[in-house]
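The freezer alarm interrupted the setup, so I double-checked each line after restarting. Inputs confirmed:
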Amino acid sequence: MRRKAKLDLLQGTLDLMVLRTLATIGPLHGYGIARRIEQVSGENVVLNQGTIYISLVRLEHQGWIKTKWGVSENNRRAKFYSITKAGEKQLTAATVNWERISSMIGRVLADGGVET
Amino acid sequence: MTPLREFFARISSAVRRDHLKREFEDELATHLEMLIGDARQRGLSEADARYEALRKLGQPVSLREQHHDARGFPLLDALVNDSRFAIRMLLKTPAFTVVVTLTLALGIGANTALFSIVDNLLLRSLPVRDPDRLVQLQVVQMIGSVRNDKPLASLFDRAMFLGITTLSEASNQSIAKERMVAVVSGFFGLLGLSLACMGIFGVAAGSVTHRTKELGIRRALGASGKSVIWACLRETLVVLMVGLIIGAVCAAALVRVSASVVNDLLFGITATDITNLIAAIALMVVVALAACTLPALRATRIDPLAVLKEE
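Predicted 3D structure, all chains:
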C-alpha cells in the first residue's frame, strides 16, 4: 500500500476543527471554513471539502452551531454558520479531551528507545 | 440529553428533507464556483480550474448520500427498503411464503398450547398465599361435633389424626396422571418444534440455492458478507411477522379446542395466557432465525466468478 504523505482525518476531528474555526473567525460559509482549515493546517489535511457540509449538519443537529443566509464577498447568496454558546462549551470540553488523548498516545509512541 | 436532541433534530430535518436537499445542492454549487474562481486567480485555465475544483470538493454522489444519511434516519430507510424488497420476493415465491408461514403458525400454536398445559399442571402453585402451609388432615375419630365458627385450634382438642399432608404434596399425588400427560405432550411439543425448525431450514436453504445468481451478482458488485446474510434473513423476518400473527390466532383457537376436548384432563383450563403466547413466539423467532442463519452463512461463500460464468 502506498504511504500517504498527507494525513487522513481521524473520526470526529473534522467536527472539532470546524468548531474551532467558527469560534476563531466568527460566521463563515462552508468554503470559508474549508479554506481556513487548509491554511492553518499548512495544507497538510486531506479534505474532501464537501464533507465539511456533512460535519456542519452534525454540529447543527447538536445545537452547537446556527445558520443564517447571507451574501458572500463575491455577491452570492450563501449559508453562514456561527458557533452557539453550547458550541463554545463543547469546543472547550472536546479540546481538553483531545489534548489528553494525543499526549497519552504521544507518550506511548515515544516509548521506542528502550529495547531488550 | 445529546442523543435526544439529535433525534428531534433528525425528525425535523426529515420533515424538511426536500428543502434541505436543495439548500445543500446550492451550497455545493456555490462552493464549487468559489473553488474554480480561486484556481483561475492562480492562473489555471478554465478546464484545469474546474478539474481541480471538482477534485477538491469530492465525489458529489457520495456527498449526497452522506448528507442524506446525516439528515435522516439511515437505519429506518434501510429497513423500509429491505422490507419492500423482501415482500416483493415473497410474492414472487408464494410456495415458500405459504410453507414457512404455516410452519411458523403451527409451531407457535402448538407451543403456546403446550406451554399453557405444562405451566398449569407442572409449574403453577396453588392460588393462595403460602400454599406450603396448607395441610390436609385425616381425621380418625372425633368427639362431639365441630362448629364452623369455633376457632380451628379447638378441633385439635377433640379429634384424633392419622396423617397430616401438606396440600401441595396431596395435589401432586392426585394429578400424577395428568402430569404424565403433560410431560408426554411436552415431548411432542419439542418434536414439533424441531420439525418446524427443519422445515424452515429446508425452505431457507432452498431459497438460497434459488437465489444463487442474484446473491452472486450482489457479491460481484461489492456487497459485503454481512449484507448478503442480511438479504437472506430479512425475508425470514417478514415471513416471521406474518407467521407470528397467523400463529397467534391459531394458537388461541387451538388452545380453546384442545381445552374443551380434554376438559377433565385440564380441569377446565382455558389457557390463552399471554405470557405463554409470548414465550412460544420468542422461542419460534429464535428457532426460525437459527434455522435461517446456516443457509445465510452458506450464501456468503457463493463464488461470484462462478455465478457470472454461468450466464
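Quick read of the result. The two ends of chain B are 55 Å apart (CA to CA).
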